[in-house]
Amino acid sequence: MSSRPELQAPPEIFYDDVEARKYTSSSRIVGIQAELSERAIELLALPDDGIPRLLLDIGCGSGLSAETISEHGHHWIGLDISPSMLDVALERETDGDLILADMGQGLGLRPGVMDGAISISAVQWLCNADKSCHEPRLRLKAFFGSLYRCLSRGARAVFQLYPENNAQRELILNYAMRAGFAGGVVIDYPHSSKKRKEYLVLTCGPPSESTATPSAKGEDGNSSSDDESSGDEENQTVSISDRNRPRKKQKITKKGKRRSWVLQKKEKMRSKGNVVPLDTKYTARKRKARF
User: Fold this and answer.
1) What is the DSSP secondary structure assignment for residue 125, as one 8-state letter?
2) Strand, coil or helix: what is 116?
3) Which of 54, 88, 168, 213 is the most exposed place for a label (fewest CB within 10 A)?
4) Which pTM does this prediction carry?
């Protein structure tokens, strides 16, 4: 496909009945989804104690990524905006529960009920205004705010995404940090054009040693060390430890207008036929801060 799907049509329209079945029946896409989901679950770093967790699959589609969750013995809830995709998931008799919803309007789940969340190639859709009422910043704020509330303390959320550019990447990361998450971006195989994959790894809670961003995979498939990634211009692991909100721009106080400018402005208003007060010695007078 020549262009990105999110630039062609809204997700609920792009993934119609034909595209949903074509997507699910492609062995190539099934393999890619399984590989990405496996890596996302690995980055979740769930405790290996044999206790099944309840995970949220955001943009679950036809349930391809959720199959990997079931294989690991966990329960899941899938959320997607495309009715056609969810219909295919029902036909495939997936194990989890399905929700038809727009993540840009908030998730609407009870606080603290989810033990983790994954999302494969979905979050970048929020950066596009598909309708006149859509404002990407407000939709990202609603999404990350509701996700933070529904996750249990210390739980992780892993998003595999394809940002269109660096500005889009920073926009997504910025609103995640504003919602209260700690974490950063993990880039696997950063120097490979085909194998390069980008993951946003977030932890529900303030930054600490336990919330450190995981290591990325290098060219050999093993986790890269901090020494190797620190020297690169584009790090494989971008760690975000400073969650302080950006300072608001200070308002620049404008200097008071001079009397000549005010008189010229009033004369211009009179020439247009507007009612303007008479000029007096008090016109454009600088007033004291208080009486």
Assistant:
1) G
2) strand
3) 54
4) 0.70
Which H helix or E strand runs over 151? strand 151-161
Q: Taking 90 as the threshold, does the pLDDT of residue 144 lie above it?
A: yes
Q: Are the C-beta atoms of residues 54 and 88 closer than 8 Å to each other?
A: no
CA distance 94 to 192: 34
Look at residue 239 and tell me whether its pLDDT is greater than 50. no
Helix, strand or coil, per DSSP, at residue 33: helix
Half-sphere exposure of 160 (CA within 13 A, CB side): 25
Q: In 3-state terms, what secondary structure has residue 154?
A: strand
Indicate the pairing of strand 197-204 with strand 181-188: antiparallel
CA distance 109 to 202: 18
pLDDT band at residue 4 under the 50/70/90 scheme: confident
Q: Where are the alpha helices (DSSP H) in the chain?
A: 11-14, 17-25, 27-44, 64-71, 83-91, 136-150, 166-178, 226-230, 259-271
Q: 223 falls in which pLDDT band (50, 70, 90)?
A: low
* The predicted structure's pLDDT at residue 238: 43
